[in-house]
Amino acid sequence: MFKKLSIITLLILVVMTIYGYFTTLFLELLPYLSLIVGITIFVNGLKVKDKPLKKKLYIITASLSFISFIRIMLN
Questions:
Q1: DSSP string computed for 56-73
Q2: How many domains does the chain have?
Q3: pTM of the model
């Protein structure tokens, strides 16, 4: 289930990036791309069971992505 969700999320990111590049809306789509990547990384980190360091790294990376989303939206 999660593998399909990851593939769909990756395809959405690629489509949004290409659309943003050709329509010069890339800077406007950047916060949403950051949010989607953060959610995907966070959920992937929750799936990791046996490696606590790897799980923490996933969650830290996702939280940095959420912080960048908030900073971009506030500016």
A1: HHHHHHHHHHHHHHHHHH
A2: 1
A3: 0.69
